[in-house]
Amino acid sequence: MLGRWLRKFIWKPFEIACRANPLIAIKITTTEPVLGVKCLKFHNLPIKFLSWFAGGYDYAVVYIIDNEIVFDSGFAWGQKSLNAYLEKEGMKKSIHTVINSHFHEDHIGNNNLFVKECDAEIFAHEKGLLDVNFVKDREFFRHFLFGNYVPSKVGKIGVAYQTLTRKFEVLETPGHTPDHICLYDPINKILLSGDLFINENLSCQLIEVDGPSWIASLHKCVEIEIEILLDGHGAIISGHELVKERLSNKIKYLETIKSRVEQLASTEKDIQVITAKVFDDCDFVNQLSLGEGWMSAITLGAFARSHLVKSFIKIS
């Protein structure tokens, strides 16, 4: 009953307000973590607050490779700033390809801008084509965090893409989503990882998460030589051993969850109880979200630990 009243009188009006007045990027920061690869981050006060609250999960970034290929197009609310940046840097004539790591709106939000202003072609994994090519009804927080996504024509991704100076292989890395891919430069040993990593212990996920597939994808990337990992939310990890260590730590984290879930699921049949026992932290946010984690608290359960838990339960 309380939840219904909160949705009707607080969250629903808030969603309507976000549709009418989405977040506006007030600052753009550009770095060049690798020669020829630019990393664009969009900032504003609400997102900065979320970063503080969430421990780092604050924005998706846009990578521009050799002024030719874009990997992930970022939040739609950053479109005005991104358009101004492309104009200022003279990239509208040089960018020809946009590759989406997966279908979440914080990674595809400006596809339409690159089509309109650069006449670029957009590519994504075939398992995500329905979601990137069509608008669907979305929860309030997606309007607030991601902005108003306008679909553009997106084609099936190929096996490799290249600029004048380098070539990237497409690696299928499902788990975070079924359609997730990374780009790997085997010569310079660079991995553009999308949301493969994010951080080592982010437990709240959307309903499409697949824990076993995520672990397999991480193992795949540990086995290749990576000197620098460029994460879809801004983390830059340099050095082969450090990259391997950080990816291995995430594998251990997910495998620990998997082991706990499998053990509990043999006797307990209540997903909420299993989730609470797997994640037994007792901080205020965890209590507020009924054990589902901080992102569940601000998204009314759309992001939730139980999605990850359910993906590890096998029904024979």
Brief rundown of the structure:
By secondary structure, the chain is an alpha/beta fold. It has 13 helices and 13 strands. The protein has helices at about 1-20, 45-55, 80-90, 105-110, 110-120, 130-135, 140-145, 210-220, 240-265, 270-280, 285-290, 295-300, 305-310, and strands at about 25-35, 35-45, 60-65, 70, 95-100, 120-125, 155, 160, 165-170, 180-185, 190-195, 230, 235-240.
Question: Please, could you describe this protein's structure?
Answer:
- There is one protein chain.
- This protein has a single domain (15-311), classed as Metallo-beta-lactamase, Chain A (4-Layer Sandwich).
- Helix 3 links the parallel strand 4 (69-71) and strand 5.
- It has helices at 2-20, 45-54, 79-89, 105-108, 111-118, 129-133, 140-146, 211-222, 240-265, 271-278, 284-288, 294-299, 305-311; strands at 27-34, 37-43, 62-65, 69-71, 97-99, 121-124, 154-156, 160-162, 167-172, 181-185, 190-194, 228-231, 236-238.
- The mean pLDDT is 87.
- Helix 1 runs parallel beside helix 7, helix 9 (240-265) packs across helix 10 and helix 10 (271-278) crosses helix 13.
- The protein has 13 helices and 13 strands.
- The two termini are 36 Å apart.
- It has a 7-stranded mixed sheet with strand order 1-2-3-4-5-6-7.
- It has 316 residues and is α/β, with parallel strands linked by helices.
- The chain is globular and about 60 Å long.
